Amino acid sequence: SKIEPLLLTPEEAAQTLRTSRAYLYELKSRGDIFLSKIGASLRFRRSDLEKFIEKKAKHTERILKQQEFVA
Q1: What is the pLDDT at residue 69?
Q2: N or C: which end of the chain has fewer CB within 10 A?
Q3: Element (H, E) at 8
Q4: Burial of 51 from C-beta contacts in 10 A (0-12 / 13-18 / 19+)
Q5: pTM exceeds 0.70 for this model
Q6: Which of these, 2, 1, 18, 5, lies nearest to 45 by C-alpha position?
Q7: Cβ contacts of 13 within 8 Å, gap of 6 or more
Q8: How many CB atoms lie within 10 A of CB 21?
Q9: Angular region, 31: left φ>0, alpha ψ -120 to 50, beta rest
């Protein structure tokens, strides 16, 4: 079985989130995801990306439930 890397390059992280590198760096600047620097290399932890997606999904669910009560 293939081992998934714990750290992703900015390109890999953007592909994982299916977004651009520019938006990835915007998320980092807002504090939505975190960056690790190893030597001169910038890396994103896969677990941080997964937590970000889970947080966004829960936020979206709350909004949709609030809209159900309004409708």
Answers
A1: 66
A2: N
A3: strand 7-8
A4: middle
A5: yes
A6: 5
A7: 24, 33, 44, 49
A8: 13
A9: left
